[in-house]
Amino acid sequence: MLKEISKDNPAVLADYLQSRAQEISADILLKVTEILNDVRTNQDEACKKYTKQFDHQDIETFKVSPEELDAAIQQCDPAFCDAMRQAKKNIEYFHRAQVRQSYILQKEKGIYLGQRVLPLDSVGIYVPGGRAQYPSSVLMNAIPAHVAGVKRIVMVTPPDENGSIHPNIAFAAQLAGVTEIYKIGGAQAIAALAYGTQQIPAVDKIVGPGNIFVAAAKKLVYGKVDIDMIAGPSEILVVADEKANPRHAAADLLSQAEHDPMASAILLTTSRTVLDAVNDELKKQSVKLPKREIVEQSLANYGKAIVCDSIEECIHFANEIAPEHLELMIEDPMKYLGQVRHAGSVFMGYYTCESIGDYFGGTNHVLPTSGTARFSSALGVDSFIKTSCFLHYTEEALQAYGPQIMTMAKEEHLDAHANAVKVRMENE
């Protein structure tokens, strides 16, 4: 099930990594640009038109009323609600530790300078519709924003076949502190959040997963607003030593393979016996899965394995791949954590399956994909803040350091900059 790659042929690994790179086609970008321009110009009328065209719903009022929200929540399974409440506590507990403080530095001659940490004013969260519902993503996107201090947290989600909001999504939104909900999806929802309409005021940042049209829309509106990332297919990389349970490793690889035929599942192990046993388990377990066809496509295309000489070598290859999810199914994983340079999130030990992080553990499941963990981070409190610097110089400080400032400005041939210092020194 997993195709073995020789560790001595790095070109094969490079080709594999490149094969998963997803570029948004020019045709899709053109179609999405048309939708964005239409919504920017015609606002709610364009949103209604596309909601009818793509979601087959006549929506006159996009905003979900408190009564509609309460009615949807009443349909939720109490056990699901209890699990979500505990997940919320865990997610808040983790993210509160990320909160940064403003600071001020005092220097000589009355100089002081510092930095303010400020929450964004407003954030829009895109929540996909269709057959798959991901209330956990509502928690993962909204809770860090709430912890950061964002006052206006907006959620957009496509209406279902009855023109309503899904009950589980409604409950998640209320639980996570979402302040406004609008029944609208697709590129038109991204346009509404970016440019604003009569019914949907614009936001400062857009986060959340979506299909290729949503991804294209986020890419195109970046600059008007901020975005979280352009997410690619899901990825898991399992590092397993000779003591790892092959049944567990196979189950974890399948947990990501079921997302998408483009999803990637990689095993790096120090034991050929473990690799053979994992492949046997993949065959046994995959036949029982409802999404067997997707799983088999994913593993056939992007299921890979490398047998390494040591855990250190496994981690070396893991750093080359920079996976979204990295599992260290090894003895004493903390011993090796410092060697991990590039991973969206790391799951430590034999019993910490990636699914725990997806739903319940507290760490965020919105993670960099497609190798971008080399330079980007998981969604968190920092995703919803901005920083602003401040600086104060006294008369004494300006007299002391003005000549040096003017020297630097003149070397760059910016005489007006130098003059702004000079006139103050002369006046005094």
Automatic annotation (TrEMBL):
NAD(+) binds at residues 126, 188, 211. The active site is at 324 (proton acceptor), 325 (proton acceptor). Keywords: Amino-acid biosynthesis, Histidine biosynthesis, Metal-binding, NAD, Oxidoreductase, Zinc. Catalyzes the sequential NAD-dependent oxidations of L-histidinol to L-histidinaldehyde and then to L-histidine. Substrate binds at residues 234, 256, 259, 325, 358, 412, 417. It is an enzyme of class 1 (oxidoreductase). Binds 1 zinc ion per subunit. Belongs to the histidinol dehydrogenase family. The keyword Nucleotidyltransferase does not apply. Zn(2+) binds at residues 256, 259, 358, 417. It comes from the Bacteria. It catalyses: L-histidinol + 2 NAD(+) + H2O = L-histidine + 2 NADH + 3 H(+). Its EC number is 1.1.1.23. PROSITE patterns: HISOL_DEHYDROGENASE. This is Histidinol dehydrogenase. It comes from Catenisphaera adipataccumulans.
